[in-house]
Amino acid sequence: SGCGKSTSIQLIERFYDPVAGAVLFDEVDARELNLRHLRSQISLAGQEPILFNYSIRENIAYGFEEATTAQIEDAARLANAHNFIVKLPAGYDTVVGERGSMLSGGQKQRIAIARAVIRNPKVLLLDEATSA
C-alpha cells in the first residue's frame, strides 16, 4: 500500500512522463514510441473492475468487437472465470447488472482480467486486480 504501483502503471502507459529518468521497453525510451501503438500493446485490469450492464460475453469482449466465442471462452479460462460462468443460469449470456451488481467482487475481477487478456497483449498490467 502506497509503494507506487499505480504510479508505475501510469508511467508505463504514458499517462504522464517521468521528470527524471526513463521508462524503457526493450531498451527503447517509451517517449520515442508512438503513443497509440504503445497503448495498443498494453492491457490493464485495475483495482476497481469496470463492468457494464451487458452480458458476460459482451463485457469480456468490450473493446475487441471481433472476438470469437472461442477467444472469449479462452480468456475466461485464463482468468479462472469459465467454471463459474457456465454455472450461471444463462452462462456467458448472463447480464451482470449495473457495475456488475449481480456478481461477487472476485467474479467481477475475473471478468475484468478476461477482458484484459483477450487481446493477447504484449504487456499485461494487474493493479491489485486479484485483491478480492
From TrEMBL:
Query: Which InterPro entries does this entry report, sorted A to Z?
Result: ABC_transporter-like_ATP-bd, P-loop_NTPase, Type_1_exporter
**A cellular component term (GO) from this record?**
membrane
**Database matches in Pfam families:** ABC_tran
One MF term in the entry's GO annotations: ATPase-coupled transmembrane transporter activity
Q: Which residues form the ABC transporter domain?
A: 1-131
The organism sits in which domain of life?
Eukaryota
Protein name per the record: p-glycoprotein c
